[in-house]
Every structure is written in C-alpha cells, then in structure tokens.
Amino acid sequence: MSMIELVRRWRADRRGATALEFALVLPFLLGVSFATIDFGLGTFERHRLNEAARRAARAAILMPPLIPAGVLTDAGTRCTGTANGSVTCAGGTAASFATILAAARSIAPRLAATEISVVYRRSGVASALPAAFRPPIVMVTVTPSTTMAFGLLGRLPGMPGGATLGASSAPALGRAWEPAD
C-alpha cells in the first residue's frame, strides 16, 4: 500500500467525525443553555420585585396613611423604612409600616425594611375638595441591595458572576384622608 492510498483511505474514513463535531459544539450549546436558564431566573426575580412593589402599594392605600394630610405636596413626601421596622418620613415619623413590609415580603421574603420607600404625592383628583379629602398618589419603590448571582452561567470561564437588579416601583391612587376629629 502506497502513501497516497493510505492518505486517501484516511480522508475517506468518517468514523469519529460526529463525536469530534459534537465535542466542538458542546461548549457553545452549554453556554446558550446556561444563559437561557439564568435569564429566565433573572426575569422571574425581576417579576417578584415588581409584584412585591405592587402588593406593598396596595397595602399602602388600604391602610391609614403614614403621613398627615397637611404634609402632602406636589413634589411628594418620601417615607423610608428603617432597620428596626419603623418608618421615617420627611414630614414626620410614623410608628410602623409593618403592613406594607409584610405585603412586600409575602412575595419577596428577603426584603429588608430599608429597601422599601413610600412616596405620597398630591394627585389632582377631586381638586375642588379641601386637601384633607383629596386622594393621594402612592408610589412604593422596592430597591434590592443584593445582586442576583448567576447559578450556571457564572461558573463558565469569562462570564459574569451576577447582575444588579434595579428598583421596582408601583403607583396606586390612595383613598382620601379621613378628617381629624
């Protein structure tokens, strides 16, 4: 058998070609699969934060307001949770916003009180009525202080280990304040 025949036979032999092609394509397929799974988990976490903000906004409009009606402005009054579970507002301090925090934690249990803020703003609805009877716009913002770690994609060389999730906000039209006795 001549050298030319041997080279021709070797080039015509296709055994093992499929395994070699699979070995070359496998890292790409795994990377796409891991990225898809991590993207889905990230989208789910983003949805949870949006839902936590929505539930907290609903709780904020159903409970008595954290601030008195006289403090309400067009620019808004921000109330932010503190580490001990109380809330600090620009116009004063409310004793607790445990209901708002519990509503947000029902969907995102790791949220801290400091990651939730509530803004009360004049709505312009029923503007002919005295200020105490006008419903405010309530905006609840959930700002997570943690990053979402990539479980699968972060293990691949050269890939990021996680991503920072931005704030989620939910507006709601509140109920009118009850007149003081």
In short:
With 181 residues, the protein is of the alpha+beta class.
Describe the main β-sheet briefly: 6 strands, antiparallel
Structural class based on helices, strands and sheet pairing? alpha+beta
Mean pLDDT: 78
Number of domains: 1
Fraction of residues in β-strands? 15-25%
Distance between the termini: 111 Å
What is the 3D shape? rod-shaped
Helix content: 25-40%
Using the CA coordinates, give the radius of gyration.
28 Å
DSSP helical segment count = 3
Along the chain, the helix and strand elements come as HHEEEHEEEEE
Total strands: the figure is 8
Strand order of the largest sheet: 3-2-1-4-5-8
State the oligomer. Answer: single chain
Walk me through what this model shows.
With 181 residues, the protein is an alpha+beta fold. The protein has one domain (17-173). It contains three helices and eight strands. The protein has a six-stranded antiparallel sheet with strand order 3-2-1-4-5-8, covered by helices on one side. The termini are far apart. The mean pLDDT is 78.
